[in-house]
Amino acid sequence: MEEVLQSKEPMPSSSPAPAATPAESSVSSRVEAPTFGHKLLAYLALTKPRVIELLLVTTVPVMVLANGSLPHWWLVVATVFGGALSAGSANAFNMFIDRDIDTLMHRTELRPLVTGVLSARAALIFASSLGVLSVAWLWLFTTPLAALLSFGAIGFYVIVYTLWLKRRSEQNIIWGGIAGCFPVLIGWAAVTGSLAWEPWILFLVVFLWTPPHYWPLSMRYKEDYANASVPMLAVVRGAPLVGLQVVLYAWATVAASLLLIPIGEMGLVYTGVALLSGGWFIYESHRLYQRALAEKELAPMRVFHSSITYLTLLFLAVGVDPLLPL
């Protein structure tokens, strides 16, 4: 989930930025002597906090499902904190590795390593420290399995997605998105110390959801990725094909979500939310595809935002359903 929820970063202009604009020079002059507050905010930015928000939305409800009721508050806090450290570590490693292409994209040109608020060395130390702390924290305060899964999530995101797939394959988001599926396993493992069919189904849901969530965003920032030579699907394929892939994955996501009903013995709340919100997600995906076929203005961010709402509602239902006698 590497770029998830970053649509509120600076909007791209209609033409590539020159190597050094007056605005960039101004930014550089402002950060020559950053204050403690500037640095603190820069370290926070390295973790991509808005990405972490969505990852944690998928963690806590799974803990409720695993426990069959509300887990102990301390276990929830410990798991959320450890998960946030893990995701923050992976995201900081991502910014360290991608600092060269971040300078080429308007939507990332204000990141801390681009503006110079933080050095690459400081970012690497910070990312490594968060990773070690996350694994140690989860091991001590949750379960060893949750800690090992956290370590695996960081490694997968950094090595498989960022270092290997992102700059080499148009399927980067499909397989790289696996890293964003780990929080559901970590949440379940933190409660039970093991895994079962339910978290694996939700793992599959997030896996299938990631491409139709992210491809519309890549359509919006197509020129950015092209400038940075990142082969996102929207860069190397036409809009109709991307739209079709979004439709197919949206249908697959909703179908996977329905598997939880018989296997997890879910009730009316989850069933209703899965069907209604899933239907809306599919509708928006088809709308994007039809506009691509008709060569109309795509408005891909409608699908992007609807996908976030869909996943949020679905996982809220996962957490609420076990608490109700329906």
Keywords:
single chain; 326 residues; mainly alpha; Tetracycline Repressor, domain 2; Four Helix Bundle (Hemerythrin (Met), subunit A); 0% strand
Gist of the model:
This protein is an all-alpha fold and 326 residues long. Helix content is 72%, strand content 0%.
Structure description:
There is one protein chain. The chain has helices at residues 22-30, 36-46, 49-57, 60-67, 73-97, 99-102, 112-115, 120-141, 144-165, 172-176, 182-192, 197-220, 222-227, 233-236, 239-258, 260-263, 268-293, 301-320. It has 326 residues and is mostly helical. It folds into two domains: 44-194, UbiA prenyltransferase (Tetracycline Repressor, domain 2, Orthogonal Bundle), CATH 1.10.357.140; 196-326, Four Helix Bundle (Hemerythrin (Met), subunit A) (Up-down Bundle), CATH 1.20.120. α8 packs antiparallel against α9 (144-165) and α9 packs antiparallel against α11. The radius of gyration is 20 Å and the shape is flat. The relative contact order is 0.12.
Q: What's the CATH topology label of the largest domain?
A: Tetracycline Repressor, domain 2
Tell me the number of structural domains.
2
Largest sheet: none
The appropriate CATH architecture of the largest domain is Orthogonal Bundle
Gyration radius from CA atoms, angstroms: 20 Å
Helix content: over 70%
Tally of DSSP β-strands = 0
Overall outline: flat
Structural class: mainly alpha
Low-confidence stretches: 1-31
Q: Average pLDDT, to the nearest integer?
A: 89
CATH class of the largest domain: Mainly Alpha
As an assembly, this protein is single chain
Query: How many helices does DSSP assign?
Result: 18
Strand content: under 5%
CATH superfamily of the largest domain: UbiA prenyltransferase
Order of helical and strand elements: HHHHHHHHHHHHHHHHHH
- Distance between termini? 33 Å
